[in-house]
Design a protein that fits this description.
heterodimer, A: about 325 residues, mainly alpha, about 0% strand, globular, B: mainly alpha, two-stranded antiparallel sheet, about 5% strand
């Protein structure tokens, strides 16, 4: 059963990627709301996939991804203002990711060595909240509570944002895919399943945990960078908002945690639901979003990928069956 | 007023305010004991109770502290209902879904309140809101003192319940090891339902206290959850007295921190202390339990 499913997964990824590459060529990027919507979706996909790597595969649920998102945005803004990098500079984006990853390594050495499970989640949550205060109090370097204003005259078109975000999302997806097929991935899953057993088989538990944590932080930092370029205004409340930590968690769990396609599916579905609610029932939209999360957890606690095994969806898309089994197959 | 007196005043305010964190923290700690999740919606429930008090006071003129008698059964029932209706089903699916359920509940409650009662800040003004008691050169607000007394009473009652009654014993057993408790004939559903009811009732008490002493708005709750969480970590999970002490300690830390450094840093100071405590003393500052992180 493995071979044809693998092939159909490759084909699916290729087709979806091609469709997204072709999409802006077919519509007017400045007029179409969908271009903006997909841009946000790509950011969510990368964030969710990054969290999925840390929590779903390595088993270390972090609630502090907003720390890395915000840090990435600030690195981009500060280096641009200082004149070291340009508008939509890949160097700045890489730097933002690397800075976030560096923070993850530094914090991870302390947190991951000491804390497990809930305590790790709460510790990372604390990290994000501390960073927000630090950047609010950061004086002229961070612009205080007002934040940093970037030269918005650089804006020309939504097109470049779309493609950069698509690249980041695709890069994240392929990275996690390849990583999970490697020895490193095997080690991460072993740690998730049983830390002691993994350690007794010669896996350096802390090293691999930090690796996953830093990789997840890298993606978050890059997302923060591109979103910072998009808004031209980096402020502590918006970029260190807990939403950047919670939404990816929600999307991953909704899609299916510990599966490769779950976060992607979850990101598009949740972003779509929120966006539709925002368009058609704006007054009660946030309330509806909360209700939606409750309903999903009541009726679909294992995520949408778990639907693959049974019912209509499996008959319509037989390959999903294989994809949802990916976790067991390893 | 001399600097010393000002400092004493700050200490007193910290203790009085911290006792409110403490009550919320006890509820959080109880629910953690039964569900193994941080009930992140606790703060939203507290604000719901504050609104409840506000409306009872505004519509009927009933004294806010008297409203406590009305509030307790309502929120106990709410807690029971939440467990039986929502969390019992999801608990089987694991911790992540329960946590996200709590998150969804928080978003729902917050926005429901904002939708129904506008996001404006509300405050209760009673005839005694401005009254202060003079103790030497210090002023102690009457309503804050009442809050402190209520918090102590609530903690005492929960403590007695846990130590002296059979149900309390069952709750403690279930939080140690749900599987073993079930083998001994303790119904997980009933015990968790009861724990939830008590936890939410404590949120109700904290809500009444909030309403009488501070202005509040629908989104204030999340911050409250985080503060209660820090208080729980200070006191050690599962310890009733520790949670209250942890809350008071946090209140002190915040008021002294904002006095000595600056108000803006208060949050960062409490989180830094929180990180240090969970890393160095995961069993809490006052506990000697051996439960590891």
């Amino acid at each position: 059963m493995k071979k044809p499913i693998q092939r159909s997964a490759y084909i699916l990824v290729a087709i979806v990627t091609l469709a997204f590459v072709a999409f802006p060529l077919l519509v007017d990027t400045e007029e179409s709301y969908l271009v903006y919507f997909f841009f946000m979706c790509f950011i969510y996909v990368a964030l969710a996939q990054g969290w999925n790597l840390v929590a779903g595969y390595a088993g270390q649920a972090s609630f502090g991804q907003h720390a890395f998102f915000g840090l990435g945005a600030y690195i981009t803004a500060i280096t641009w203002k200082a004149g070291w990098t340009d508008f939509l500079d890949p160097v700045a984006m890489t730097l933002s990711g690397a800075g976030a990853a560096l923070l993850a390594v530094v914090v991870g050495v302390a947190l991951l060595a000491k804390l497990r499970g809930d305590y790790f989640a709460l510790g990372t949550l604390g990290l994000g909240e501390i960073l927000r205060v630090v950047f609010t109090q950061g004086g002229t370097l961070t612009g205080g509570p007002v934040g940093l204003l970037l030269p918005s005259s650089s804006y020309q078109s939504l097109g470049p944002y779309y493609f950069i975000a698509l690249t980041i999302a695709l890069f994240t997806f392929l990275f996690v895919w390849l990583l999970m097929r490697s020895r490193v991935g095997l080690a991460l899953v072993a740690i998730r399943e049983d830390e002691q057993a993994a350690a007794s088989n010669g896996i350096h538990v802390l090293k691999f945990k930090i690796l996953a944590f830093a990789a997840g932080a890298f993606f978050s930092g890059m997302c923060g960078s591109i979103y910072g370029y998009f808004l031209f205004h980096i402020h502590p409340l918006g970029f260190f908002s807990l939403n950047w930590a919670l939404l990816p968690v929600l999307m991953t769990v909704l899609g299916g945690i510990g599966t490769l396609f779950g976060p992607v599916l979850g990101a598009f579905v949740l972003a779509g639901v929120f966006e539709l609610a925002n368009l058609y029932i704006p007054e009660i939209h946030p309330m509806f979003s909360g209700l939606f999360v409750i309903l999903v957890m009541l009726f679909l606690p294992q995520g949408m990928m778990s639907l693959g095994g049974k019912g209509v969806l499996a008959r319509l898309f037989p390959f999903i069956l294989g994809l949802s089994n990916q976790r067991e197959r390893r | 007023m001399s600097a010393f007196n000002a400092f004493m005043q700050i200490l007193i305010n910290g203790v009085l305010f911290g006792s409110m964190y403490g009550v919320a923290a006890i509820g959080l700690s109880l629910i953690f004991g039964s569900m193994q999740i941080v009930f992140i919606a606790q703060g939203a429930v507290i604000i719901l109770a504050a609104y409840f008090t506000y409306w009872v006071f505004t519509l009927t003129g009933l004294d806010p502290f008297f409203c406590l008698i009305l509030c307790l059964p309502v929120f106990m029932a709410l807690g029971w209902g939440l467990y039986v209706g929502l969390f019992h089903k999801v608990a089987r699916a694991g911790k992540n879904p329960s946590l996200l359920l709590a998150f969804g509940l928080m978003v729902l409650i917050e926005n429901l309140m904002a939708f129904l009662w506008t996001p404006n800040t509300r405050a209760i003004r009673t005839s005694y809101t401005a009254i202060g008691l003079s103790v030497g050169p210090m002023q102690i607000s009457f309503s804050r003192l009442m809050v402190f007394i209520i918090s102590l009473a609530a903690t005492g009652l929960v403590f007695l319940f846990m130590k002296k009654t059979l149900w309390g014993k069952a709750v403690r057993a279930a939080s140690e090891d749900m599987g073993a408790a079930a083998l001994l004939g303790i119904s997980p559903r009933r015990v968790s339902g009861l724990t939830f009811a008590i936890g939410i009732a404590l949120a109700g008490i904290a809500g009444v206290c909030t309403a009488t002493t501070y202005p509040f708005d629908p989104y204030f709750g999340f911050l409250f959850s985080l503060k209660a969480l820090i208080a729980v970590a200070f006191g050690g999970l599962g310890s009733v007295g520790g949670a209250l002490l942890g809350g008071i300690l946090l209140g002190l830390l915040e008021s002294v921190g904002s006095y000595l450094i600056s108000g803006g840093w208060a949050d960062a100071i409490s989180y830094a202390a929180f990180l240090l405590v969970i890393m160095l003393r995961p069993q809490g500052l006052f506990g000697q339990s051996t439960r590891a992180a």
